[in-house]
Amino acid sequence: MSRTPLPGLVASAGPAADLGPALAALVVGALAMGLSPVLVRFVSPEVGPFASAFWRVALALPALYGWMRWEEARAPHLRRTLTPSVLLAGLAFSGDLLFWHLAILGTTVANATFFATTAPVFVVVFAWIGLDRRPAGRTLVGLLVCLVGGATLVGQSVQVDPARLAGDRDGVITALFFALYFLTVERARARGLGAARVTFVASCVTALVLLGAVAVLETRPVLPHSPGAAAGLLGLALVSHAGGQGLLAVALGRLPAGFSSLVIFLEAVAAAILAWILLGEALGPLQVLGGGLILAGIAVARPRRTSRKA
């Protein structure tokens, strides 16, 4: 079998001008997902971590269902069947959220964030080794620059502590599941499913898994007791999940998983900026440098004008 490049890991799926809406969806989705750490911190005094992960997905389901009905009414050619890839996407996102919260509980937030940002590495490795999709040189260069930027963004807070190795391990597992999520959503979109159906069905699977996790693992309150915390959970569901994950699924219909996975770095930049604006957490020179390197790496890896390969 020839080792042909993956369209999108190395090239765009069409003329670069056609990718503008997908790139916009990717960037806005990253900003929406970047709000999630701020909202989780806001509701954490009242709601446990696993419960907040569950409400993030469950409360978004009505909006996602309405979007799915609207999208499929406007585009009757979209498939309405279930595929293994969309079900696997839901399981992968469940693993991502579960191990992310376990990582936060078992190690520092900086360590958890640092290891979670290695997800794009696993996307490229899985696609290359498992799916025989060779990445382009500029994709690898852009990824390397983003990794350096991500390490710079959080690196000064990363600590090596043998007592936190389990949490660090969970951070790596988070990255593995997030990589699988990108690849399975990309596959589902390639099979003709709309972005709304992919996000809705995957979220239904995730909500069921997280409901079981709340029953078994959650030791803190499940329901908020103030209107502010309830509003925070609703914002987490509608903005970070329905908006962020939904726009990511839109982007993966046109952009490759390898490039789109760099959204995790954009998410980290957005989270740092929002924490500065909303929580007063000042950005130092290293954080600014790290954010600049991430933007430079994404610019290097972005899809170029090219024709689709068969």
Automatic annotation (TrEMBL):
Keywords: Membrane, Transmembrane, Transmembrane helix
Pfam family, one: EamA
Domain EamA: from-to ranges: 23-149, 172-300
SUPFAM superfamilies: Multidrug resistance efflux transporter EmrE
UniProt-listed InterPro entries: EamA_dom (IPR000620), EmrE-like (IPR037185)
Transmembrane segments: 53-70, 82-103, 109-129, 141-159, 171-188, 195-217, 229-252, 259-278, 284-301
Cellular component terms (Gene Ontology): membrane
UniProt-listed PANTHER family: ACYL-MALONYL CONDENSING ENZYME-RELATED
Protein name: EamA domain-containing protein
